Amino acid sequence: MSSAVDDIEVVERAGDFVLVRWRNVILNVWDGRVSVARLRQLKAAGPRVVKKYGLRGVNLSVVTANTALVSVGGAERAMASEVARDQAEFLCASACVIEGDGFLGATLRGITASVSLLARAPYPFRVFGSVRDCAPWLAPHVAPPRVSTSQLFEMIGEMRRDDFAP
Hints:
Helices cover 44% and strands 22% of the residues. By secondary structure, the chain is an alpha/beta fold. The chain has one domain: Transcription Regulator spoIIAA, CATH 3.30.750. The chain has a six-stranded mixed β-sheet, sandwiched between helices. Strand 3, helix 2 (36-53) and strand 4 form a beta-alpha-beta unit. Helix 3 crosses helix 4. It is globular and about 40 Å long. The two termini are 23 Å apart.
């Protein structure tokens, strides 16, 4: 795994906004507050990443249990829909992991799935409760050579290490 870990790269960093890449997987972790400003950063970063790497990417957004999704309003939902539509030219799949247990976690995942349906992204999109649950769905979308579910799960863990985190 060490050679694969060496291929992890921070491709964008601005304050608490960080995009990390491995192969064609682009990871962003939301920890704190979802804001229109941060969604704009995500929207602007997409074309720069494609220009630099020339890839059809797989987006993985991980929303930690510390993130205040309950306070997400209409402006944030509208911007999230705009980002989803704009990413169509360079994404082949997108997944959102909303960490958190119980009723609140399940409700937030349901709301996110509903908003994604309204955005009508022309690529596959799914919402999950954990990275472990997400990995089997995401693995077939990762650029060759083929990656197993367990390899992808391990790489996502490496991508979330402190030295890559915001």
